[in-house]
Amino acid sequence: MKQILLCSLLLASQITNAQSQMDQPGYYRIQLGEYELTALSDGTVPIHLHDILTNVSHQEIDSLTTLSYQTPTEEASVNAYLLKLNGKNILIDAGAAELYGPTLGHLPESLRKTGITPEQIDAILVTHIHTDHTGGLMLNGKMVFPNATIYISQPEVDFWMNEKNKTPRLARWFKEAADKVGPYLKAGKVKTFEYGDEVFPGITALDAHGHTPGHTFYALESKGAKMLFIGDMVHAASVQLPDPAVTINFDVDEKTAAIQRIKTFKDAAAKGYWLAADHISFPGIGHVRAQGKGYNWIPINYSTLGNGQ
Ligand SMILES: [Zn+2]
C-alpha cells in the first residue's frame, strides 16, 4: 500500500470537518500573453512524506519541512489550469474526481465558478495518466467533459493501455487508466502527439518522461511571456525544491524523474520563466531561484489586475 497516495489520507471525519469549515474560492486568473489563464483547484489532500518520499532520510524530511513551517504530513494541492484563446477552452489536467476521497474532486465546481461548464471544455492537455490528473475525466460512469478532445503523448498511451507493462506495483493505475481514459479512447476522443509538437498556438508538448513513461510538460509562449506546466515534477515542494534529487515512490522511473527535475529547475532559474505545478500550493504558479544545492519557490503575486507581477 506504500505507493498509494490514498494511504496518506487522514481520517475521513477529520477531513470532512476541516473542509466544511474552509470552503475556498478555487480559481485564480491572470493574463499570459494572448492567453487568459485560470488556475483551478481540485482540492487539497494530506500526504505523509515519510511514507512516500524516497532517496531521502526521515531526518532530512523533518528538517526541511520545519524550515518551511510545515510538518511531514503536508497538505498537497491538486491543481489544473484553464487556458482561453479565440473562443477555445483548453484545460491542462483534469483532477481526481472520486478517487482520493472527499477533499478532492472539486475541479468541475471550481470551473463553474469561473463561468465555464465542463461541457464547454474543447480540449484537455494531459501531463500524464495518473489518478489525480485523469481521474476527473469520468464520474459515475459518465464523461465529465463530453465535448473535449483529450491530448496525451503517444508513449503515455502506449504504456498504460498495454497490459503487458502491468506489474503488481502499477496494477492500480492500469485499472484507473482503463476506467477513466478508456471510454474516451473507445469514443475516438483521444488525440496523441509526439514530443515537440505544437498542440495549440504557442503551446508545445515537451518530453518529461520519468515520473511516468510518457510524462509531458507543456511550454506556453505568447507575446514574450513563458510558462512551463510541469505536471508531477514536484509533489512535496518543501523538500524537493531545496533537494531536487528526492523522489517519490509512485515515480515509475525515480532516477529519470530526478534528472528531469534537476534539469528543469536549473533552466527555469537561469531563464526566469513561470512554472505551473499541479501539486505546489494553489495556484501552483511561481518562479524558482537557485539557493545552495537547491531552489527557492517564489509564488506569484496576488493581483486583481491579472498580471501577477
Ligand atoms: Zn499528481
UniProtKB/TrEMBL annotation:
GO terms for molecular function: hydrolase activity; metal ion binding. Residues 1-18 form the signal peptide. InterPro entries: MBL_superfamily_lactonases (IPR051013), Metallo-B-lactamas (IPR001279), RibonucZ/Hydroxyglut_hydro (IPR036866). The keyword DNA-binding does not apply. Keywords: Hydrolase, Metal-binding, Signal, Zinc. It comes from the Bacteria. Coiled coil: none annotated. Residues 77-273 form the Metallo-beta-lactamase domain. The keyword Signal applies. It holds the Pfam family Lactamase_B. Belongs to the metallo-beta-lactamase superfamily. This is MBL fold metallo-hydrolase. It comes from Chitinophaga silvisoli.
